[in-house]
Amino acid sequence: MAQIFRPSSNTLARASIVGGGLLVAILALGAGGFVYSSYMTGVGDPRIQPVPFSHKHHVADAGIDCRYCHTSVEESAFAGIPPTKTCMNCHSQLWADSPMLEPVRESWRTGRSLEWVRVHDLADFVYFNHSIHVRKGVGCVTCHGRVDQMPLTWKVKTLYMEWCLECHRAPERFVRPREFVFSMDWRPAEEQISLGRRLVKEYRIQDAAHLTSCSTCHR
Amino acid sequence: MAEPGRTDVTSDLAAIRERLAAARGKTYWQSLEELAGTEEFQALLGREFPENASEWMDPVSRRAFLKLMGASLALAGLTACTSQPEERIVPYVKPPEEIVPGKPLFFATARPLQGYALGLLVESHEGRPTKVEGNPLHPASLGATDAFAQAAVLTLYDPDRSQAITEAGRISSWNRFLAAVSGALDRQRARQGAGLRILTETVTSPTLASQVRALLAAFPSATWHQYEPAGRDAARLGARLAFGEFVETQYRLERADVILALDADFLGSGPGAVRYARDFALRRKIRGREARMNRLYAVECTPSITGAAADHRLPLKASEIEAFARAVAAGLGVGAGPGEARPSGPHAGWIAALLRDLQAHRGASLVIPGDGQPPAVHALAHAINHALGNVGSTVIYTDPVEVNPTDQLASLFDLAEDMDAGKVELLVILSGNPAFTAPADLHFAERMSRVAFRVHLGLYQDETAQLCHWHIPEAHFLEAWGDARAYDGTVTILQPLIAPLYGGRSAHELLAALTGTPEKTGYDILREYWKSRYRGQDFEAWWRRALHDGLIAGTALPARRVALKAAIGEPENRRTGDTGAKAAEPGTLEVVFRPDPTIWDGRFANNGWLQELPKPLSKLTWDNAALLSPATAERLGLRNEDVVELEHAGRTVRAPIWIMPGQAPDTVTVHFGHGRTRAGRVGTGTGFNAYALRTAAAPWFAPGLALRKTGARYPLVSTQDQFRMQGRALVRAGTVAEYQRHPEFAREMGEEPPRDLSLYPGFAYEGYAWGMAIDLNACIGCNACVIACQAENNSPIVGKEQVGRGRAMQWLRIDRYYQGALENPEVSHQPVMCQHCENAPCEPVCPVAATNHSAEGLNDMVYNRCIGTRYCSNNCPYKVRRFNFLAYQDFATPSLKLMRNPNVTVRSRGVMEKCTYCVQRINAAKIEAAKADRPVRDGEILTACQQACPTQAIVFGNINDPESRVARWKAEPRAYGLLADLNTRPRTSYLAQVKNPNPEIGEG
């Protein structure tokens, strides 16, 4: 009676053990890579906006403070997207005929709002509050990156929960003096950790147990 | 056929009585089913949810379902591969003043009900009113509200509200209406308005009154009628009987030591109820050993929350209460000569003790007559209060708050007669639904058809709208300018929170159109009126101040003197016609009419929150029932849910039976408001129409009700046996005497394990530790907190069938316990929500760590992690977790999206949820405090239930701060933890109930 398995089957079996393991590893790596790919996270992916608004031009070239447009960042959960009126403060005079700004003028004429595409979109079950982060010394740059170097706006962080927790577990690694929160190019003069520890104390930032309680962000 | 989870009890009533009589000490019970202790009930107890609550009820078999689910689950992983849909940010073009996106604003206004104002502060998110709170400056509110006010936002956003002007059912326009009505008015002008009739609800609005008067001046022969189905005619006529004129009666409950309620639900309904509840509870809160509690005697026919709060309650037929009042009056030497000062009859001992108590508290006692009692009882109460020296102390008289107090039923009767006689040519109905709510013997709907031109202004295309030529959508009170007076006369200017969603118009605007100025807006009308009344220098500042404060300072009516007539005569009764009563024919019963406790006179029928709200005592939802006393049900051989035919004055309705402990024997109480035929998708077809039995001659009670069994059954859904906690010492109550002897009586009714009884090291709660305390002595079971919680936390409604399966989603329930005999049990209310146990049993059993403990002691629930195993709910001894068995939320209706609180996640199917101690409010307060570098102040965080509570029975705060109110309450000797013997260490404490019975009567 012929053998069902020939001797070469041994090799196949060994190879399949290794191969199977490899396959699982590749799939896992692939899935991981996919989850962290910019397709999923949107990091580095500029969104198409009704007007190709350049933070680089307004912040770096014109030197406008963040709060000129994002007015409620110090008092509300929402930093605020400027009303058309804010744009028209300058653009009724400057570039008043630029075709690129036609949507802004149209909005002003018709009273219909501009519709911006949200770049930083947290899940609906997360309740983030800008004002308290700003108050506790989290710089704009820490989460939004160097917007003063962005001709179009994209996000630089994943906004995944693990990313939030990086700071909520150890805020001393990220906080800066309040007066530099809106600064784009601030660098700590001393070691961040020792400065951070001092600031955490001074600003009475809650400990990790409080900051990582579920209801801090979810409700 | 036995429904699952239901038992047949009536056959066992005798056994129940025996069992109650044999019980030693206090036995608390919630329902007759529980007392009967049948096998089915025991089975029900053992289950976490009633049978079928968690079963797959569709025709698809369980097996097929599992197959489908297996495939779905395999594919479910793929859903993670989609990124979130793109979202848009739509900023303003020109930013409105004061709006900071993400921060709510609060505007003062008022809720008119039956004409009277309840001051409100309404929360507005970017122009959307989302939540109603009481206005702390307003005398009728003092920061609290009732359940109706809490539910107002749902009515505002109700997609079933009428959305277009219609002519004979077809969509028309305002201009066409103006053209049509001006023609009709021109014809009337020629006849001095002899054929013009205006029908409104009770009016206290000074502006509306001036408009109506202007219209009447232009049409001198026209008449103005007011009608309110749950009206206060008896109070008006009673005052006229006693004093010869209409006066407003106000009570100062905080000054009253002894209160006698004569069928009066002063805590639950009426213009001053919210304030009265606060004042009443002020004298029920015991701090320390000192107990200067008031004592409430309630004589009533059908159990009300006032009766439930009473120290002594006497169930009497509604018709016997007048005789009772006469006996009390005679005992005090009022009215009749001094000869018969000795009460006789079955309740003689009770009355004698009551009389001695009243006499011992002259000037600090109070007799309150109910709106459902005849004018004679009101007159007697006035006379008794005079005799006891209460006037000026606990009773205050003022000029009427109403603009034009009349005998409303008589007025409606006249209108119906005039319509019948063809005298009415133009009928304008400003709010109200008389075609549905008018007493049946007026045949109002039928007679309306004889009017040539009928106009209806209303929130809904209701029964009346259908019968009118023209229907104009009414602006909700949150959409319109207006004004109204509170129970004490204080005027509030109502300001709109949002432009009319459906192009509605206010009564002011419609009246302006009738007087030839259709271009005037509500704002113009209000400003014009108040400008004409203003005598100061700076109207603008005055106006802004009035709007900001939510009231016009100094407009409360001053107390005035009244002269009691020497002899109180009989009231004239212009409402002729046969009462239809077969004067107490043997075998007939007495029928008692009351407005529904949750949907009132039917106007809130399409409000799902109120429909699903369990009624305070029966705990019925989505229905009304014919309430019978246990003895009467036994005599007639009736069981719960038996359908009977009720016949009164020649008209019949079919109604299901509900046996109501504490109901007076041989009476049947029916709540009117249900049985709507054109209420909307929610309210049409719930319950039966009790108006069909009501007559103008006897609007509140009448003898001669015949009751016939039909053999049919109708399922009623009561939540009284749901989420039960199996008969442990959950609600704890004692008497003042017991308390003074032994203040810690409640704590010793259960065992509390020492805090170090654990193998694990304890967690040190540093900083804030949130906790709550609830004073059961102050809780009156009014339900305001339940709706407040629902509105604040975006809780859905589930419908009658789902409530029956135990799937109601309210995070806060009020358990109602009975103690004592079936005929007249004592009642305790206990609000129960998540207790935020420090050793929470729900947490360790969650396989995905979706429920966790926060560092401040909150039991957090993370919806996005929850996979719906329901283990947590299974392990919760308090049964406070709620599971979204189905997709209860309405994610589709656009208007409902506007209503939701943006700070609370809207949950979908398959997710567990529960009370969070309003964590969104905690976080908001913490952030504001941190930004100002200060700790959160005591009282800065109010949970939604706490804020709404009329009696301030709930406090919330930081228990680490020994000076906080909550810490002080928890240190009271009456404080105990619910099921603390399980070592769950609940963060919510209850303060035991203490009753103040008259030792001469004894407990009960």
Please provide a written account of the structure.
The complex is a heterodimer of chains A (219) and B (1004). With 219 residues, chain A is mainly α. Chain A has eleven helices and one strand; from the N terminus they run H-H-H-H-H-H-E-H-H-H-H-H. In chain A, helix 5 packs across helix 6. The model of chain A has no long low-confidence stretch (mean pLDDT 93). With 1004 residues, chain B is an alpha/beta fold. Chain B is built from 31 helices and 40 strands. At the A-B interface, strand 1 and helix 7 of A face strand 2 and helix 29 of B.
Strand order within the widest beta sheet of chain B: 7-6-18-17-16-8-9
Q: Tally of extended strands of chain B?
A: 40
Distance between the termini of chain B: 37 Å
Counting copies of identical and different chains, the oligomeric state is heterodimer
End-to-end gap of chain A: 70 Å
Chain pair with largest interface: A-B, 47 and 41 residues
- Low-pLDDT parts of chain A are none
At a glance:
Chain A is mainly alpha-helical and 219 residues long. In chain A, 43% of the residues lie in helices and 1% in strands. Chain B has 31 helices and 40 strands.
Key structural traits:
heterodimer, A: 219 residues, mainly alpha, 11 helices, B: 1004 residues, alpha/beta, seven-stranded mixed beta sheet, 19% strand, globular, disordered N terminus
What is this structure's SSE topology?
The complex is a heterodimer of chains A (219) and B (1004).
Chain A: H1 8-35, H2 38-41, H3 55-61, H4 66-69, H5 84-91, H6 102-110, E1 116-117, H7 130-135, H8 140-144, H9 161-169, H10 192-202, H11 208-211
Helix pairs in contact in A: 5-6
Chain B: H1 13-22, E1 28-29, H2 32-36, H3 39-46, H4 62-76, E2 88-89, E3 105-113, E4 116-125, E5 128-134, H5 147-150, H6 152-156, E6 166-167, E7 170-171, H7 174-190, E8 196-200, H8 206-218, E9 223-226, H9 233-243, E10 248-251, E11 258-262, H10 273-282, E12 295-300, H11 305-309, E13 312-315, H12 321-331, H13 348-360, E14 365-369, H14 375-387, E15 395-398, H15 408-420, E16 426-430, H16 434-437, H17 444-448, E17 453-458, H18 463-466, E18 470-473, E19 482-485, E20 491-494, H19 507-514, H20 522-533, H21 539-549, E21 589-595, H22 608-612, E22 620-621, E23 626-628, H23 630-636, E24 642-648, E25 651-659, E26 667-672, E27 701-713, E28 717-718, E29 733-735, H24 736-741, E30 770-775, H25 784-792, H26 800-804, E31 813-819, E32 826-832, E33 851-853, E34 859-861, H27 871-875, E35 882-883, H28 894-899, E36 912-913, H29 919-931, H30 944-948, E37 954-958, H31 965-970, E38 975-977, E39 988-991, E40 993-995
Parallel strand pairs in B: 8-9, 8-16, 11-12, 11-14, 12-13, 16-17, 17-18, 21-26, 23-25, 29-40, 30-39
Antiparallel strand pairs in B: 1-31, 3-4, 4-5, 6-7, 6-18, 10-15, 19-20, 21-27, 22-28, 24-25, 24-27, 30-37, 31-32, 33-34, 35-36, 38-39
Helix pairs in contact in B: 8-19, 9-14, 12-13, 12-14
